[in-house]
Design goal:
single chain, 456 residues, mainly alpha, two-stranded antiparallel ribbon, 1% strand, globular, membrane, xanthine transmembrane transporter activity, NCS2, Xan_ur_permease, UacT-like
Length: 456
C-alpha cells in the first residue's frame, strides 16, 4: 500500500485540509459527506425517475427503483473509496446512476411498449441488458491501454456530445410536463411552464452567487423551491407512497430477466465510452488529492475504478436499477472543502444506503411534478453536451477530425430527428440505429479507423 501514498511533484500539490489517508473527526467527516450528498442526490435519482415516467412504470415500482438507485450508488461509492482487493480506486470518488444510458433506454423501451410489450417485460429486458453490458466494462478495465487506442478522445468526445444533444429532447418534454401531460392535453400549459422556467431561472441566478457551496448545491436548492411552488399550485402527488413499506428490502430480479439485442448494441457502445470517461474523472480526482496522475500507481487506480463501474452496474441490474458511473461534480466539492480523505467517502456511502432503504425518501422525490424536474434536467443534459465539447476542444481538430465530427453528428442527430429513414431496414437494425448515439458513435468509431491520420 505504500505506493498508493506517493505524491505528484511538489509544485502540483494542492493545499488540503485532510489528505487521502487522513481520518477526520466524525462530525467533520459527516459535514463533508453532507456537502457531497447535496451535490449528488438529485443526479443519482433523476435518470431512474425519467426512465420510469417515460415507460409508464407503476408508482410503486418507480419508488422501489429510485430507492435501489441510492443503495447501489452507496455500495459503489464504498468500494471506490475503501478499495477492496482489485475493486476500487482508493480515492474519494462518488459513483451514481449514469445519464449516458437514458436516451437508448427510453427510445427503445418506448418502442417496445408501443409495440404492445408489457412494461414489466420491457423492464426485464432492460435489466438483462444492464447485466450483460456490465461484463463489457469489467473486461475493459483489464485491457485499458488497447481500448484507449481504439476509442480515442475524438470518438469519446463525439459520443458524449451526442448523448447530451439527443437528451435535450427529453429535457424539453420534461419541462412541458412529460409524456403523461402529452396524453392528457396539459403539455406545456401555463402551470408546467411556470414551474420549469422558475427552476431553470433559479439555477442560473444561484450560479452567479459568489458563495461556493451555494453554487455547488444550486440544482438541489432550485428543486426545493420548485417543489414548494408545486405544492402551492396543488401539483404534488404523494400516491406513490401509499403502499410503500416502512423499509425497502432489496429484492433481486423483481421484474425477472430477459434480453434484447436491439437495446444491447447501443448500450454496449455506451459502456465502452463510460469506461473511458471514468479514466478522466478518476485522474482528476487523483490530481486534486495530491496523488500520481501517471505511472503504475495511477494505472492501478484506473483499473480498479473502471472495474467497480462495471461490477456495480451488474449489481444494479440484479437489483432493478440502472448503470452507474463515476461522478465528476464531486471533484469540485473536494476543492471547495479541502477534504480529500477517502474515509469521508465511507460516510457518503452509508448516508446513500440509509436513504435508499427508506422508501419515504424516494416517495418525496417521486412526488415532484415532471415540469419541476424538467427545469433542472435541461441544465444537467446541457452539461453532458458541454462535457463532450470540452473533450473535443482538447484535441487537434484538423480536417480529418472535423470530417469525422461532421459525419457522425449529421448521422446521429439526423436519425434521432427523422427515424422514418430506417423504416425499411430489418427490425433488429432499425432498433439499433434508431438510437442517435449508437448511429453517430458507430460512425465515429469506423471513420476513426478507416480514415488515416495526417502525418505531422
Amino acid at each position: 500500500m505504500s505506493d498508493l501514498q506517493n505524491s505528484p511533484k511538489q509544485q502540483d500539490r494542492l493545499d488540503l485540509v485532510y489528505g487521502l489517508n487522513d481520518r477526520p473527526k466524525p462530525f467533520i467527516a459527516f459535514l463533508a459527506a453532507l456537502q457531497h450528498l447535496l451535490a449528488i442526490i438529485v443526479p443519482i435519482v433523476t435518470p431512474g425517475l425519467l426512465i420510469c415516467l417515460a415507460l409508464g412504470v407503476s408508482k410503486e415500482d418507480t419508488n422501489m427503483i429510485l430507492s435501489m438507485s441510492l443503495v447501489i450508488s452507496g455500495i459503489a461509492t464504498f468500494l471506490q473509496c475503501k478499495k477492496v482487493g482489485p475493486l476500487g480506486a482508493g480515492l474519494l470518488i462518488v459513483q451514481g446512476t449514469s445519464f449516458n444510458f437514458i436516451g437508448p433506454i427510453i427510445g427503445i423501451g418506448s418502442a417496445m411498449v408501443a409495440a404492445g410489450t408489457p412494461v414489466e417485460a420491457v423492464m426485464a429486458s432492460i435489466f438483462g441488458v444492464v447485466i450483460a453490458g456490465s461484463f463489457i466494462e469489467m473486461g475493459v478495465s483489464r485491457i485499458l491501454p488497447w481500448v484507449k487506442q481504439l476509442i480515442t478522445p475524438l470518438v469519446t468526445g463525439i459520443v458524449v456530445l451526442l448523448i447530451g444533444l439527443t437528451l435535450i429532447k427529453e429535457g424539453l418534454i420534461s419541462m412541458g410536463g412529460g409524456y403523461q401531460a402529452m396524453g392528457d392535453k396539459t403539455f406545456a400549459n401555463a402551470d408546467n411552464l411556470i414551474m420549469s422556467c422558475t427552476v431553470l431561472a433559479i439555477i442560473i441566478v444561484l450560479n452567479r452567487v459568489r458563495i461556493t457551496w451555494i453554487k455547488s448545491s444550486a440544482i438541489l436548492i432550485a428543486l426545493i423551491i420548485g417543489y414548494a411552488l408545486a405544492g402551492f399550485m396543488g401539483h404534488l402527488d404523494f400516491s406513490g407512497m401509499k403502499n410503500a413499506p416502512m423499509v425497502q428490502i432489496p429484492t433481486p430480479m423483481h421484474f425477472g430477466l430477459s434480453f434484447s439485442w436491439s437495446l444491447f448494441i447501443p448500450m454496449a457502445f455506451i459502456y465502452l465510452v463510460t469506461s473511458l470517461e471514468a479514466i478522466g474523472d478518476i485522474t482528476a480526482t487523483s490530481k486534486i488529492s495530491n496523488q500520481p496522475v501517471d505511472g503504475p500507481v495511477w494505472m492501478e487506480r484506473i483499473k480498479g475504478g473502471v472495474l467497480v463501474n462495471g461490477a456495480n452496474s451488474l449489481l444494479a441490474g440484479l437489483f432493478n436499477t440502472f448503470p452507474s458511473s463515476v461522478f465528476a461534480q464531486n471533484n469540485g466539492v473536494i476543492q471547495l472543502t479541502g477534504v480529500a480523505s477517502r474515509y469521508v467517502g465511507i460516510w457518503i456511502a452509508a448516508l446513500l444506503v440509509i436513504l435508499g432503504l427508506l422508501p419515504a425518501v424516494a416517495g418525496v422525490i417521486q412526488a415532484v411534478p415532471q415540469a419541476v424536474l424538467g427545469g433542472a434536467v435541461m441544465v444537467m443534459f446541457g452539461a453532458v453536451a458541454a462535457s463532450g465539447i470540452n473533450i473535443l476542444s482538447g484535441i487537434h481538430l484538423d480536417r480529418r477530425a472535423l470530417l469525422i465530427i461532421a459525419i457522425s453528428l449529421a448521422l446521429g442527430l439526423g436519425v434521432a430527428q427523422v427515424p422514418q429513414i430506417l423504416e425499411h431496414l430489418p427490425e433488429l437494425f432499425r432498433n439499433i440505429f434508431s438510437s442517435g448515439v449508437a448511429t453517430g458513435g458507430i460512425a465515429a468509431l469506423l471513420l476513426n479507423i478507416i480514415l488515416p491520420e495526417s502525418k505531422q
